[in-house]
Specification:
The chain is an alpha+beta fold and about 250 residues long. Strands 1, 2, 3, 4, 5, 6, 7, 8, 9 and 10 form a ten-stranded mixed β-sheet that branches. Strand 8 and strand 9 form a beta hairpin. Helix 1 crosses helix 2 and helix 3 packs across helix 4. The radius of gyration is 19 Å and the shape is globular.
Length: about 250
């Protein structure tokens, strides 16, 4: 049995999420079906993170165990061929020792959230960004975001459906910057709560619009109450960017 580490890029628009779902297509199903078509084996894909419906990935790390002898490059090419036309691509494939785990060996995860800040509707960026018509003050958003960096109880920014045992997480980095008509939010931590990034971005957007004072973000965090959340950003602007390993 060989463990293969995969680096996946995917457009989350047509999927119910990364994990296999009984009520619709998933990224996991697309990969596992491609493994079966390639090897005749029913393998289970394990990923570094979980993504909701509509969320994308630039470099999601995952792994599968396969008994049949096959070279990593050949496996990558076969998986990509069998997954067409699903918007999932294997960017890299390599052998890993059996004690390496895409999820449990991961020591850091990073996300990018893209806000398109303009009046005109999205065309090429449809389902790839959150369209916000009101002018956004990215500098104010960045200043407000720093209250969230560090170890905190993130109950306010946690989905009611979150299955994590504790709401306490350490946020290593949360940065906001403008690039033309886009406002980009970058977040990094060892792990995140369900909806944490989208919830943080939603509140920062309220600051950028001038509907919240910068200090409101810190007050929402201190409330430790989901009812204190101002806004949960939609999924289509969120991208899983990177998974770090020792």
């Amino acid at each position: 049995m060989t463990r293969f580490a995969l680096t996946l890029e995917f457009d989350g628009t047509p999927f119910m999420g990364l994990q296999r779902q009984a009520h619709g297509p998933s990224v996991q199903q697309a990969v596992e079906d491609a493994v079966f078509a390639t090897t005749g084996e029913r393998a289970t894909m394990h990923a570094a993170g979980r993504t909701d419906a509509g969320v994308h990935a630039l470099a999601m790390r995952a792994h599968v165990d396969i008994a049949r002898p096959i070279a990593p490059f050949r496996l990558m090419e076969a998986l990509n061929a069998h997954m067409r036309p699903a918007p999932v691509s294997v960017l890299e494939c390599e052998e890993r020792p059996e004690d390496w785990h895409a999820r449990f060996s991961c020591i850091g995860r990073s996300y990018l959230y893209r806000i398109c800040n303009r009046r005109a509707p999205l065309t090429l960026e449809a389902n790839r960004a959150w369209l916000v018509h009101q002018p956004l003050d990215a500098d104010a958003m960045h200043r407000a975001a720093q209250a969230l960096v560090g170890r905190h109880d993130f109950t306010t920014f946690r989905s009611v459906h979150c299955q994590a045992t504790s709401p306490v997480k350490t946020l290593d980095r949360l940065e906001v910057r403008r690039e033309g008509e886009f406002v980009l939010v970058e977040a990094a931590a060892r792990s995140f709560l369900h909806h944490q990034v989208r919830s943080m971005v939603g509140c920062l957007a309220l600051v950028g619009m001038g509907r919240w004072a910068e200090a409101e973000v810190a007050r929402a965090l201190a409330a430790r109450d989901r009812q204190a959340l101002g806004l949960n950003a939609p999924p289509q602007g969120l991208y899983f960017v990177d998974a770090a390993y020792p």
